[in-house]
């Protein structure tokens, strides 16, 4: 499977799991989802928030940074998302501050695991030339030609 196909599949999974994470976060008392999301990013990306990640990738902070990740970086984030949702539910977290801290802890633990196994930290992975949205449009145009 080529990288673009891997990105499309992993992106779809990440988007779907983000929805269930936000529901779990809401159930845990989260009202500021931007702040909650940044806690997870800061744990995983060694302190970088979404705006800083976008800047490093050379995209605007209005662009979805997940759209500009390769399959490995998407998988890192998918693991963070899945494990944060589990932590929120398993520990029955019931306030925004605790939920934010849990998201940060999980992001940091994923980062430490990547380091421990000798993997590439997400901020050191290359930013793909094409966004996932662009790849989806190209795939659609191939179908329309047939």
Outline of the structure:
The chain is 68% helix and 0% strand.
What's the SSE blueprint?
Blueprint: H1 3-27, H2 33-44, H3 50-57, H4 71-90, H5 96-116, H6 132-145
Question: What features would you describe in this structure?
Answer:
This protein has 146 residues and is mostly helical. The chain has one domain (3-140). It has helices at residues 3-27, 33-44, 50-57, 71-90, 96-116, 132-145. Helix 1 runs parallel beside helix 4 and helix 2 (33-44) packs parallel to helix 5. The chain is globular, with a radius of gyration of 16 Å.
Structural class: mainly alpha
CA-CA gap between termini: 21 Å
How many structural domains can be distinguished in the coordinates? 1
Number of H- or I-type helical stretches: 6
Regions with little confidence, pLDDT below 50 for 5+ residues? none
**Biggest beta sheet attributes:** none
Output the helix-strand order.
Answer: HHHHHH
Q: What is the strand tally?
A: 0
Could you tell me the radius of gyration in angstroms?
A: 16 Å
Helix content: 55-70%
> What's the average pLDDT?
95
Keywords:
single chain, 6 helices, globular
């Amino acid at each position: 499977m080529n990288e673009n196909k891997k990105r499309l599949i992993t992106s779809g999974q990440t988007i779907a799991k983000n929805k269930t994470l936000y529901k779990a976060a809401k159930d845990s008392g989260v009202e500021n989802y931007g702040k909650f999301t940044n806690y997870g990013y800061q744990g995983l990306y060694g302190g970088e928030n979404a705006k800083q990640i976008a800047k490093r990738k050379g995209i605007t902070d209005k662009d979805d940074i997940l759209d500009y990740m390769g399959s490995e970086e998407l998988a890192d984030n998918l693991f963070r998302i899945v494990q944060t949702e589990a932590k929120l539910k398993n520990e029955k977290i019931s306030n925004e501050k605790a939920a934010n801290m849990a998201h940060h802890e999980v992001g940091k633990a994923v980062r430490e695991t990547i380091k421990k196994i000798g993997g590439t930290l997400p901020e050191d992975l290359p930013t793909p030339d094409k966004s996932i949205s662009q790849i989806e449009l190209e795939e659609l145009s191939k179908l329309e030609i047939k």
